Amino acid sequence: MASNAYIYQQGTTPNTSLLNSQKVKVFAAHPGGAGPTANQIGLLQTWNPSQSRPTEPVRGIGFGDRIAEQSVGVTDLTGSLSIAVMYLVNIMQVLGYNAGSSGLIRSLKHHRWPFDLKEQIVVPNFVSTDPKAQRGSKGAEGISGGDLIQTYYEGCWMQDYNISFEIGTSTIMQDASVNITDMYDPQAGRGAYDEALEDRDENTISLLIKAAATA
């Protein structure tokens, strides 16, 4: 039987200042993989990480139509992805489950353990060395070796999964959405995200906060 290795051959990509989807790589682990994110997902058609964090305006009786403060809620992290399916590779398999030809897993109710995902954006060298990339007190701290901007998505669980077979459509697609426990820059690690985290330069903080500090 012929190998399917040709499916995963790497090609060249254009170097532009605009972010190009050809420069985005997503990693997980296939069954028997060497690590949680050891394998690049092939035939990936869409990858949509998403997050939401609600805020609630708080007012006080007798102080007019004025917002006193925004009460900040907690963050929900989700993602969705779709792949073109091969006979021996389906979406559960690319996320590390012993599914399809690799084992007995067929349903979300068979999943016992979470998985991780890693996203890499490959930055062209002429962009990463541009002085404009060094803005702010942190410079280009977010670019790791190999000119990569990396994000690690940890503790993921599939929350839905579907596949559709249609007459007249030759390419079969599979879609899944995932709930994510945490995300961070893997070169720093999750431990870098504590009260000492500098999320922005001090001179760019809202005037509302600065006014409160001097009141």
Please tell me about this protein's structure.
By secondary structure, this protein is mainly beta. It has one domain: Pnp Oxidase, Chain A, CATH 2.30.110. 7% of the residues lie in helices and 32% in strands. It contains three helices and ten strands. The strands form two sheets. Strands 1, 2, 3, 6, 7, 8, 9 and 10 form an eight-stranded antiparallel sheet that branches. A two-stranded antiparallel sheet has the order 4-5. It is globular and about 65 Å long. The termini are far apart. The mean pLDDT is 92.
Brief overview:
With 215 residues, this protein is mainly beta. Helix content is 7%, strand content 32%.
Overall average pLDDT: 92
Strand composition percent:
25-35%
CATH class annotation: Mainly Beta
Biggest sheet features: 8 strands, antiparallel
